[in-house]
Structure formats: structure tokens, C-alpha cells
């Protein structure tokens, strides 16, 4: 059974590009080996990430990620059963803050990234649009 799990969290310190790169290097290696895809974005010390794959694999990975000391205040935004993955092109895509990022944010009425204000549908749609840029 395929699922899509989306969560938000707060970085425990400011993340440099190198810090994000370190996360992505491990994530891409690991996710590829367990057939998980998804998208991550980071701004204003918030992470928003979606993970798609087999339910057991996603659940297990999420528990590991939630334990990672680089972030806390982890909140599951949505947990959905899906027919097919929509982030299949990415073992783990990443979108830094950019003009396109802020243009998409303004479509949901935000000037400053605060994923706590997103509805579950907005969170997934925001990540999906970012993944296509
Ligand atoms: P190890 O690398 O040996 O990690 C051991 C412990 O140390 C773990 O608790 C780990 O979380 C922690 N750790 C590792 N590196 C650091 C560091 N630089 N600073 C502080 N603590 C550290 N992993 C994936 O495989 N797929 C993902 O999609 C993914 N997304 C992530 C998203 C976010 C926002 C964050 C913060 C991490 C993400 N990770 C992801 C990394 C994940 O949390 C684990 O670090 C990774 O899976 C390796 O864990 P490990 O226990 O196998 O190995």
C-alpha cells in the first residue's frame, strides 16, 4: 500500500546550504534504496517535507527522521493512501527559497514561509508545484 506522509518541523539551529546538502546526500542514497520519493523545502527555520512510498518503509523512515536532533516540533500535516506517487522524479527533491518559491507562497496568501498556516491540501500542492520548477 502506497502512502504520502507530509510533515513540518522547526530546525534546531539555522541551516546552511552545506547542512541541507548533508541531509540530501544521505536522504537520496537511502530513499533510492527503499523506493521512497518526495520533496523537502526549507526557509525561516521551517522544514516541510513529503515522503511517498510503501507504508511500512515510509512509517519507519519518518520515525527516524522525527528523531533527528537537527529539528524538533515535528507535526504530521497529512497521511494519505495514494494510488500512485506524484514525486517519482525525486528520491528527495529540494527547493530553496527563490523568486518562484515566494511567488507560490503569495498564491496562498503568505509573504513569509510559515507552513503551520497551510491546510494539508495547500502543503502538498505547494511541494508538488515546487517539485515541477
Ligand atoms: P546516522 O547517520 O548514523 O545517524 C545516527 C543519528 O545521528 C540519527 O539520529 C541521525 O538523525 C543523527 N545525525 C546524523 N547526522 C547528523 C548531523 N549532521 N547532526 C546531528 N545529528 C545527526 N534521511 C533519509 O534517509 N531520507 C530522508 O528523506 C530524510 N529527510 C530528512 C529531513 C530532515 C528535515 C532531516 C533533519 C533529516 C532527514 N534525513 C533523511 C536524515 C535522517 O534523519 C537520518 O539522519 C538518516 O536517515 C541517517 O540516519 P541513520 O540512523 O541511518 O545514520
TrEMBL record:
Q: Which Pfam families match?
A: BLUF (PF04940)
InterPro entries according to UniProt: Acylphosphatase-like_dom_sf (IPR036046), BLUF_domain (IPR007024)
Q: Which PROSITE patterns match?
A: BLUF
Q: What is this protein called?
A: BLUF domain-containing protein
Residue span(s) of domain BLUF: 2-93
